[in-house]
Amino acid sequence: MKDIFRGCIIRFDSNGTGLEFLSDGVVVVGDGIVEFAGDVAEYDGQEVSKSQNVILSPTINLHDHAFQPPGIPGELIVFDEEKKELVGWLPTTLKEGEYAAKQDKEVARRMIGSRLETFAKNGIGTILEYATSSVETVEAVLEEAEKIGVRVRVGYVAMDQGIDDIQKGLQTTSVEALESTEYLLEKYGPEKICVIDRFPIAVTSPTRKGLAELARKYGALYETHMDESINEKKIHSDIYGTKSIVTTLLEDSVFEPGSRVGLAHAIHANADEMKQIQEKIRAGCTVSIRACPNSNAHLGSHWDGDKYVRFPLQAWLEIGAIITMGTDQGAGRGWNIFDELLDERRRHPVDKKPSNVELLEYATLNGFKSLGIDLHAVNIVEGNKAEFIVVEMAGAEGFYEVGTCNKDFEIVAARTIEGGQLPENIKAMYVRGKKVV
Ligand SMILES: [Zn+2]
């Protein structure tokens, strides 16, 4: 039994530097393996009619919190001067989501299972999840991902300082955090496990140094939040004197040559901080940014008082950081990476907007690069395990004659993003040879 798809093909070019576009192609899958992927003119199998479908790599969601329920209102984190405690969205979501998951693995399984299924229906094939501060919740994520067929990178969330009274039992000791992370890396390897520093205000320097060392030892990705909101920066400098979050990460050896680091949000880094990171990139550290536009908007993370601070997309690109996307549920409201791309594009002035082709790179190629996954192994080419989605482009029905408007890559990319934001337009998804949707 073979599956045959016809449509535009968007895949990685042979150098792995960008995307390649075929305006009318065919992909044939047999037993989970791509038997043919190329131009319709070179195809001599069973006839298949033209369509408004696009065949491309599944999207990649590189920032999500497995056990944070969506739908909680409020600002991220605020210090209540009267109560003398931290309040806001984060403390609430920790109690209702992560704490519940940590108490009961079955609860954890249900939470993550339905979450990953929803991502899959939206065409997301690879997801990076922050679990919580328990080995069992990490294992629940791995087991449910295996059942559903999506690829995950997941980590034990280290946090050993600062906000214990609101974390309600989520805080651990440094020893627990380091031993649990090493246990998971030893057992499952860096292809499945990443190292997670919740955010620098919740992790002590000795623990962070230990985590950075583990990431280097096992070749694992180091993930943290950085400069998400102005309040976070202020609380950070209260804890660490006048140090910036970037300085703390630098001093704790997070950005070493050969290290692979993922930074979520990264809105409020200033030029000087970016320059320091640039030096580390030049020295051989791979730095990726997890743009989470939906979450940033919901939490009001762009605002510095009454001043709107735009996500510094161009500045990150200029210093050589890899731009990737994340839903950041539950702060985010969306389950769909195409929707995040539309949101990101909307937030930039007309002359600085990323092109639609570039947006597709953030959501596919850059995600694999960031994870250190060989692009050749996951590309839509003959002999590979099938890994792609089939998306019906927006604006096709009754407007264009089928197949006639498929010539221009930028237009196809725009219509793919617009079509893909609706789960009903995700017609199929394969990940590592398995048909997931
Ligand atoms: Zn987050």
Number of domains: 2
3D shape: globular
CATH topology of the largest domain: TIM Barrel
CATH class of the largest domain: Alpha Beta
Identify the CATH homologous superfamily of the largest domain: Metal-dependent hydrolases
Strand content: 15-25%
Low-confidence stretches: none
Structural class by sheet pairing and helices: alpha/beta
Report the strand count.
Answer: 20
The bound ligands are: zinc ion
- N-end to C-end Cα span: 17 Å
Q: Report the C-alpha radius of gyration, rounded.
A: 21 Å
The spatial strand order of the largest sheet comes to 3-2-1-4-18-19-20
Topology:
Elements (H helix, E strand, L loop, with lengths): L1 E11 L6 E12 L2 E7 L13 E4 L2 E7 L12 E3 L4 E3 L1 H15 L1 H17 L2 E7 L4 H14 L2 E5 L1 E2 L5 H4 L6 H15 L6 E3 L7 H14 L2 E6 L3 H10 L5 H7 L8 E6 L5 H12 L3 E6 L1 H7 L3 E2 L2 E2 L4 H6 L3 E4 L11 H10 L9 H8 L1 H7 L3 H4 L9 E5 L16 H12 L5 E6 L2 E2 L2
Parallel strand pairs: 1-4, 5-8, 8-9, 10-11, 11-12, 12-13, 13-14, 14-17
Antiparallel strand pairs: 1-2, 2-3, 4-18, 6-7, 15-16, 18-19, 19-20
Helix pairs in contact: 1-2, 2-3, 5-6, 12-13, 12-16, 13-16
